[in-house]
Amino acid sequence: MAAETMIECEGLTKKFGSFTAVDHVSFKVGKGSIFGFLGPNGSGKSTVIRMLCGLLEPTEGRALIAGFDVARETDKIKSMIGYMSQKFSLYDELTVHENLMFYGRLYGLRGEALARRRDELVALTHIEPYMNRRAALLSGGWRQRLAMACSLLHQPTVLFLDEPTAGIDPVARRELWDLLFEFSSRGMTLFVTTHYMDEAERCTHVGYIHMSKLVVCGVPDELKHLPSVNPPGTKRWDVTCEHVTAAMQALRHMPGVRNTTVFGQSMHLLVDEQMSEETVRAQLAALGITKVDIHPIGPSLEDVFVALTANRNDGQTKEGKA
Ligand SMILES: Nc1ncnc2c1ncn2[C@@H]1O[C@H](COP(=O)(O)OP(=O)(O)OP(=O)(O)O)[C@@H](O)[C@H]1O
């Protein structure tokens, strides 16, 4: 049975003057999902979140949380959602404990109820050892945990996190994600923006927005099997070699090479099925690159986003020409 829909957008649009920051975006997120929302800088992610949280009025379309219209039933959704923005306002001069108590009171908690909720969140986020530390002195990862705890004080069932792992180290990132999985296992619905593809791969559902428009939305594994991502008569290789950028420049215009994308020390090539590894090796050898490792791969989510964005742009170009 499909999960109950917790977040829904229908033709959600935001214009700032003549500029359209979010253009007819529609998607649904089920209860307990971890929905990863990706897109380049300025593509409209935060604007979507701010509309979903009732902080910004849509110009057109609508957004619903648990069936309530966020623009018209703001009071109903307030208690249901938590929002951790990119710059969540922790009070640097206050300790972890004082920040929790401050936010708890702000949400109307008092006495026993406040103490109980604080203890639950301390246990959930494992922040106990830092309770008396001033927020200013916390590392990035612990700061984000405190911000998460503060945004959960009123027991929301939907949590919006705008780049919660930006600027924190890989270990802290992984630990924060473990925490998000714990939240989701308790039935919480999470809506997370990120620029990290490895984080996207861990989400139950992902959406990709490019230039204000939603390019694709779905379950990562299903998206990787889309025919438009795996055109008939093609295969995908991971090619690892030295001077990968120069190598890519040399390969991208070779007949049979349809697409090239650099991934750190390697590149992903989408090539014609009949292309041989030897042709690639010969091309690279001509550049003096002889240590080359080639192996077949399936598409990553980044490949999916690259392919679908390119298809959309091609479509627009063709439409423009017609
Ligand atoms: N209040 C505003 N007034 C005018 N333009 C705005 C406003 N808020 C956002 N924008 C513009 O809308 C576009 C989308 O911004 P948004 O912050 O939603 O992008 P984003 O995808 O979250 O980017 P990032 O990944 O950098 O956080 C940007 O071009 C931004 O400059």
UniProtKB/TrEMBL annotation:
Keyword 4Fe-4S: no
Short name of one Pfam family: ABC_tran
Keyword annotations of the record: ATP-binding, Nucleotide-binding
SUPFAM superfamilies: P-loop containing nucleoside triphosphate hydrolases
Domain ABC transporter: 7-236
A GO term for molecular function: ATP hydrolysis activity
PANTHER family: ABC TRANSPORTER G FAMILY MEMBER 20 ISOFORM X1 (PTHR43038:SF3), ATP-BINDING CASSETTE, SUB-FAMILY H, MEMBER 1 (PTHR43038)
Protein name from the UniProt record: ABC transporter related-protein
Organism the protein comes from: Pedosphaera parvula (strain Ellin514)
